[in-house]
Amino acid sequence: MSLRIYNTLSRAVEDFSPLIPGQVRMYVCGMTVYDLCHLGHARAMVAFDVVQRWLKTSGLNVIYVRNVTDIDDKIIRRALENGETIRALTDRMVEALHQDADALGIERPTHEPRATDYVPQMLSLIGRLEEKGLAYQAQSGAGQGDVNYAVRKFPGYGKLSGKSLDELRAGERVDVQDGKDDPLDFVLWKSAKPTEPADAKWDSAYGPGRPGWHIECSAMACELLGESFDIHGGGADLQFPHHENEIAQSEGATLDTATGRGQPLARFWMHNGFVRVDNEKMSKSLGNFFTIREILAKYDAETVRFFILRAHYRSALNYSDAHLDDARASLKRLYTALNAVAPAPVTIDWAEPLAARFKAAMDEDFGTPEAMAVLFELAGEVNKTGSAERAGLLKSLGACLGLLQNEPGSYLQAGAGLDDAQIQHLIAERAEAKKAKDFARADSIRKDLLAQGIVLKDSAQGTTWEVQA
User: 3-class DSSP state for residue 89?
Assistant: First the structure.
C-alpha cells in the first residue's frame, strides 16, 4: 500500500499495512453520553469517518468499532439530577448522538458497543491483571474496596504520551484517593457507594461496584477486535491518561514475565486535534462549547462537515461564524459547477492526473486540505469546459470525503425564506418588466430578493436563483 499514517506512538509518519491482509481493524473512543454532542465530538467523528471511508476506497475491508460510554460519574450525577434512570438518560443521548451524526453524513460504525454490555469482560480483564500482580484492592481510606492498577509495575508506562514516571506528578489528570499504593495508580473497579443508585452497581468478586473508564475501552476493543489490532483513535485529549492506561491494561494482561512484554494493543495510534474558541480548547468543562444542534440551526450540515475537513485532522480547528460563512461560500462554488454541468457517472481512474493528486494527498496521512484543493481545480475545469465527465469526477472524488452528494440545485437554494414557487413568480414578473422595458421594476425585484438573501443569476438559458452565501 501507498498509505502513510502519523503514529502518535512513534511520533512519525509510517507506512501502513494491516495485520491481516485486506482487512483493517480500527477502534475509536466514542462519547460519554450524559449530554448532547458538541463540535469537538463532531470533529472526531468526521475525522475518523473519513479515515474509514478512505480505507474502504483503498480496497480494504474495515471493521470499525466506536464505543459508547454509558456509565460514569457524570452520567450517574445527571440521571439523579433529572430524576430518571441511567438507561433512560443514556438511551435518549445515544439517539441524539445518532441523529447528529447522521445529519453530518457520518457512516455508522461496524460495531457500537455500550460499556454496560461488557462488564463481564471487564471483570475478566481485571482478574488477569490481578493474577500478574498489576492490580490490587485498596484496603483502607476513601477508596476502600476499589481495585487499582499498579502503574510502576508495568514496564514502559508513558511510551504513548512521552511522559516518564518521574515527570508525572500526583494529581496530573489522575484521581488521587486514599488506599492507593502510589498516587499514579488508577482505578479499574470502583466500589459501590451507599448514595449511588442500584442501576450503577454490578456484583463482582471484589464486591458491588462498577468499572473504571479506562478498563471499559480495553475490554470492548479486545473483545471485538482481538488483543492486537491496526488502528486506535480518539481526540488528542485522550492520549493521556486514557490511551496510556489502555495500553498498560491491555498489554499488561498479556505480559510475558520472561520478556517483560505484552501483545501491542494497536500498531497505529491516531489523535485528532482540538476545536478552539478564542484560542482555548472547546469543552464542556470550560463552558465554551457549541452543540452540534446549535450549529446546525444556523448552518447546513454539509457546510459544517466541509469546515471540519478544510483543516488537517491533526491540526487545531478554529471555530467562528466567519469561518463557517467562508466554508459555506466555498462549498457553494463547488455545487455551482455541478449545477451548471450535470455530472456523468464515472469510475475513478486513479492514474488521471487530478485523481492521482487527490489520492496522493489522502495517502499521506489523510491530507484532506490538499485533496479539497483538487476539488476546486476540477470545479474550475468544469466551469471552463462544460465537461460532464469532469463534473462526474468532481462528484466522485467528493464522495470519498462525504461531500457533494446532494442535488446541486436543491443545495444552492436551501435556506431560502421564500419558497421556490414564490421566487419563480417574482422571476417571471421581472422578466415581463424587462420585456416591457420597465427596468426600474426589474431592478427593484432583484434588489428585494437580494435583501432576503436570494441571488438571481441570468444566463442564456434563463434566470436561476440561489441563497446568498
Answer: helix
CA–CA distance, 274 with 309 (Å, rounded to integer):
13
Query: Within a domain: residue 12?
Result: no
CATH number for the domain spanning 208: value is 3.40.50.620
In a domain, 7, yes or no: no
pTM for the model stands at 0.88
Residue 149, pLDDT score:
97
pLDDT of amino acid 289: 80
Please give the mean pLDDT across all residues of the chain: 92
The pLDDT of residue 171: 44
Q: What is the pLDDT of residues 243-258, one digit of tens each?
A: 999 999 999 999 987 7
In a domain, 222, yes or no: yes
Q: Of 365, 396, 412, which residue is a domain's last?
A: 412
Domain count, the chain: 3
Instruction: Give yes or no: residues 394 and 255 share one domain.
Output: no
The secondary element (H helix, E strand) that includes residue 456 is: strand 454-459
Q: Which amino acid is at 148?
A: N
158 and 32 in a single domain? The answer is yes
CB atoms within 10 A of CB 287: 7
Total Cβ atoms within 10 A of residue 296: 17
Going from the C-alpha of 377 to that of each of 87, 304, 373, 380, 394, the distances in angstroms are 50, 21, 6, 5, 9
Going by C-beta distance under 8 Å and a sequence separation of 6 or more, which residues neighbour residue 15? 1, 3, 4
User: And the C-alpha cell for 148?
Assistant: 487499582
In the beta sheet, which residues pair with residue 261?
256
Report the distance separating Cα 164 and Cα 168, nearest Å.
7
Instruction: Specify the pLDDT at position 173.
Output: 47
Q: Show the domain range for 143.
A: 19-272
Residues 259 and 179 grouped into a single domain? yes
Asked whether residue 407 falls in the same domain as residue 427, the answer is no
pLDDT tens digits for range 310-365: 999 999 999 999 999 999 999 999 999 999 999 999 999 999 999 999 999 999 99
User: Which of 212, 244, 272 is the last residue before a domain boundary?
Assistant: 272
301 and 194 in a common domain: no
Q: Who has greater pLDDT, 26 or 414?
A: 26
| Residue spans of beta strands (DSSP E) within 160-292 | 186-191, 209-211, 229-235, 266-272, 275-277, 280-281
How far from each other are the two terminal CA atoms of the chain, in whole angstroms? 40
Q: Is there a single domain that holds both residue 352 and residue 443?
A: no
CATH of the domain at 375: 1.20.120.640
For residue 6, is it within any domain? Answer: no
pLDDT at 454: 83
- Alpha-carbon distance values, 34 to 67, 72, 80, 415, 417 (Å): 14, 9, 11, 31, 35
409 vs 342: CA distance, rounded Å: 11
